[in-house]
Amino acid sequence: MTKEEIQEKAKRIEIIHKSYLDKLLDMKKQQDKIIEGFSEILKNKKIEKIKKLISSL
Amino acid sequence: MISANEKITEIVASGEAFSEGSAENKDIDNEGKLGKLIEGTLSDIYVRASATKEGGILRLKGAIDSCGLPEGDISRLRQESEVDIKLGENSEMISELVRHSVEQISVPVDSGESKQGAVAAEEGIKAGSADADDTRGARVLEAASRFSAGSQKEVANGEQFQGTQDQGIVIRMEDYKKKDPDNKEKPSEELVKEVEKVEEGSSERYREKITNPEANAILDENSERFRRNTELFKKTIEETAQNRQKEVEEFKKKLSDKLHEICSAQEEIQYLYKESEKIPEEISALGASIDKYKADIGELSKNIFSRLLNRNGINSIEKAMSGAEEKIQELKEKNKANVYRRQELSQAVESGNLSPQNLTAEERKALISLENSIGKTVLGINPATEKATLESVEASAKDHFFGAYGKYGEENNKLLRQLNILKNELTFGESTNSIDAARDIEEVERRAISQADDAFKRALDKYDELTYIEIAKERKKSVEEIKKEIYEKERVVWKEAYSHTYSAMSGYSRASLELIGLKEADMDTYIQIEDEAKKLLGLQFENTAKKDFEYARYRAYYEARRTGQNIFTHVTSGERAEKIIKERSLKSSKIHTPSELRGDMNALKKSGQTGNIEESLYFTSGGGGFNYGTKLDKYEGQEIERDLKDFAFFAATGNDLLASGKSIEVATPTMREKGESLKGQAVGDYESADGTELSLESLQLIIPESEISRYISLFENAGYNGNFAKEHLVGVPNDIVEKALNEGNGLFLRDSKVLHEYVDNQLKREVKNRSKNKGKIFATVKARKSEDGVTGRATNTVFQWQQIN
Question: What are the C-alpha distances in Å from B297 to residues A56, B289, B302, B328, B456?
């Protein structure tokens, strides 16, 4: 490979890697969103339980 | 609380940290550095993906552990919320992103090290572990293994993301490929080069050999017919493709409509989900209001005593509290209704009640798969995924309608048969139109190829020692080298010729005039139409290459020449030879099959046969082998040994037989028997009424040298002049006769080695030299369909040869 080809390849790798990082971050955000949503469900359930407990007192 | 582990994973996934080989590297100017960059990038990709996934698992676990809810509640909420499915899908997307990125980065570069790293990484993804000595590759591999092992761990540790496997609705073409075993042995590169060398610059070389106007007229007619039939075929296949395209569009539309219907339903479900999610919040808010009101009550109660007479204030608070309770009740009812509606819609989607009942079973199956697929991406329906789904639908529809095992598999096979008939017609002419071989091409091909080896061995047997010596002398090589060369060449050529010749088993096609005189333009047309048919039908099969035709053509020309130069012999006795000379011709008589003769020689006698099959035309087939025995002799178990006076046989070249208007079948007993046993007709019916009568003009009579004067007298007495006897009598030298007699203790042995050697090395040359048809070349032009009595399969029998030069 010539020097130009090597640099071209390296540049391409950088682009791919950057794109990978962006996409991975999106996916992580999506993952966080899912987990946060579920955490909220758990929290609400917990509140509901507590309220029931209170009302039964 | 966020754990330390989780903190790390978040940092890694956020792009803040980057290990060695960062893409920020600006000084990549040699392959070593490039390899290092690749290694570092790959490693980083795996590390971040693993960290992201593991972080997700930890966070989920943390949320569950900290909520303090009973296990049953958690399990139910997980199921209801589908949190595991959603996370599983996200995890799959991350894996796919890794695979895609690694693939892109691993596009080979000419660096040993980086290449190894990339390859190791790829292997790592596939296997999750591997052995690699290369240090860099090993490091990447380690990251890949961790990544892969992490994915496996997700499944194993009970914290898995429960993603489903997409079954899809694709009818895969691989299935068709599996059914199409292409086991044809390809010629070696060396042989291809050799043949190319022979063929180079002489693409019309074989046609140039065809100088006979009659032969050329046949070829022109064949070419014209091929063109006509090609047009018809093109029309058929275009119409078929148009019809199918129409059906595909309709199919696609139906599925597309269903997709939209489901999407709408899913959107409604999502809306209700969101609505229902708000309710607990509202309840909570109201709960807080109640608390506030209660606090207010406390506050107000403090003032009660100071406002004893002011009842309006208390009434106001009671009213407010009553309103709040009503609101809570109302929201609870709403929540309940939403839950019911959500369940109702989910059940409707799951049970397929949303589908119109008029869909076919196949469409319904496809739809269910589609629904499953959509069900997987319930949260992610957007223009991008919808497009991808529609593309998948289109691909499935195409496979469904075009694939070999799809709706039109049978129709495809029919068109392929037509295509093959077209090819047959192009290469072997009109006579093969009616071959039922097209009925089951695969079977015929399989049989033809399996018989290629046997035929090849037989073909090699036909080379006598003298031929080898002659070729070796001409090419200035040793006989052994020539034998090896011929062996290698023959092996491949036979395979090629057979694999492209459905009627090869009959022996007819091997010397086809049409194949020898195949026009370049017609060859191109066929290859083009085959390609078009393949695309239109959506089938995968290997195209016929021009080289395939050329091999077969080479084979045909070779076969035509060799048939003409072969020596055919008819073994008889002195007594029979005398009778034949008197009658001035060799005549056939009714031949009975072995089963007819079993235990009843009277039948043979009644029919005019005298118990000796030699009276009929009986040549050893094709090779000029010397053979006293006949099929009947063998059947009866008789050993025939003769004395000097009884030694006599006739011989002729293939060209001599063909030039006299006979087909080669006349010299092939198995063919005659086959025809007779099936049709109940006398041998020779394939030719004209006198077809089984062979003039002595075409034959050489081989006798012991010591018997020559007696035979000259016999010829003269039969009306032949002295020259005729001289030209048609071949005397076996006395020393050969003596040796042969010594070998058999006074008798000629049936398998006399001495005589075999003489026939192979001297007699054949003599008969060839004497032939008046030496320079002629004959090729087959017509055959007749008959049926193989054993297999019931249609086969061809040649009944016409054409001189081509």
Answer: 20, 12, 8, 19, 110
**Residues within 8 A of B (CB atoms), A 28-47 only:** 28, 30-32, 34-35, 37-47
Do residue B626 and residue B765 come from a single domain?
A: yes
- Enclosing domain of residue B579: 566-774
The dihedral of CA B67, B72, B77, B78: what is its sign?
positive
Considering B121, B139, B156, which residue would you say is the last residue of a domain? Answer: B156
What 8-state DSSP symbol labels residue B640?
Answer: P
| Residue that terminates a domain, selected from B156, B185, B200 | B156
| Same domain (yes/no): B259, B126 | no
Identify whether B91 is part of a domain.
yes
Axis-axis angle for helices B465-475, B479-499 (nearest 10)? 110
Range of lowest pLDDT (A29-33, B47-51, B612-616, B714-718): B612-616
Q: Is the ipTM of this complex over 0.90?
A: yes
Q: Do B34 and A10 touch (CB under 8 A)?
A: yes
Residues of B in contact with A48 (CB under 8 A): 280, 283
**Orientation angle between helical segments B213-304 and B311-351, nearest 10 degrees:** 160
Window 262-291 of B: residues touching A by CB (8 A cutoff) are 277, 280-281, 283-284, 287
State how far residue A5 is from chain B, nearest Cα, in angstroms.
9
Number of domains within chain B: 3
B756 touches chain A (CB under 8 A): no
Residue B22: per-residue pLDDT: 42
Mark yes or no for CB contact B93/A27 under 8 Å: yes
CB-CB contact of B52 with A27 (8 Å): yes
User: What's the CA gap between B139 and B305, in Å, rounded?
Assistant: 81
The whole-number pLDDT of residue B417 equals 76
Q: Considering the domain boundaries, does residue B558 fall inside one?
A: no
Same domain? B729 vs B608: yes
Are A44 and B38 within 8 A, CB to CB?
A: no
For B37-77, what is each residue's pLDDT tens digit?
A: 888 888 888 888 888 888 888 888 888 888 778 888 888 88
The DSSP bridge pattern shows strands B700-704 and B729-732 to be parallel
